[in-house]
């Protein structure tokens, strides 16, 4: 029950029950409590229990590392990983993706390469999740040749593999490669997910490819089965704004069914300033004032 609960209130009730039953200090129970608090993103409680747990298996470190990584707390995630290595705990196949994700966020290429070496030494070279994580890490660290090498040597690739490589290409401004991969995914009938479409729309925005961006955005739900999210609208507003199509960008925002955020509004206001669209800026500011 402890390992499966996602409700914080329910978890605290269970924790209180273990204290009343005088079993909360048992190694097995405390280990499960740490994992459960981590899965609920309650990192303070998870860490307190962790440091008072006499038995700290690799799985317990994994729980903390995954939770920090999921919360984009990359420094904390890597700190726990280093603590695990110092404690001479063996690491398993499950720990590499979240650690590589943290390496990506911090551009820690040195640790990423070391993990790749450990990945090969331990015989994980055919593992799909780890290969995808390596592609993301190398791509975000600007090492596209290494990312491509991992991709080429994969025995099996999925849409996640293509999307991971595409993200790396986009970060490096490799526009042609982004669209070659995207077109190949479409031709092969692969699943096109929201991450892939964000990458394509970001590329269109950066390169001023307005018609291409509009075409992809309009086909998202009908052709690819992906309902546009806030990040997709933000890409579109940024793209239309850069092209000076302020009225169109404002109309798009007004037609949204999603709750907007300041990133989107700032993109619209910044474009208004650049193109001198005072009337649109005033409408946006009135709507912002009305929200506060």
From TrEMBL:
One of its GO terms (biological process) is RNA modification. GO terms for molecular function: RNA binding. The keyword Repeat applies. It holds the Pfam family PPR. Keywords: Repeat. The keyword Magnesium does not apply. PPR repeats lie at residues 127-161, 193-223. This is Pentatricopeptide repeat-containing protein. It comes from Hibiscus syriacus.
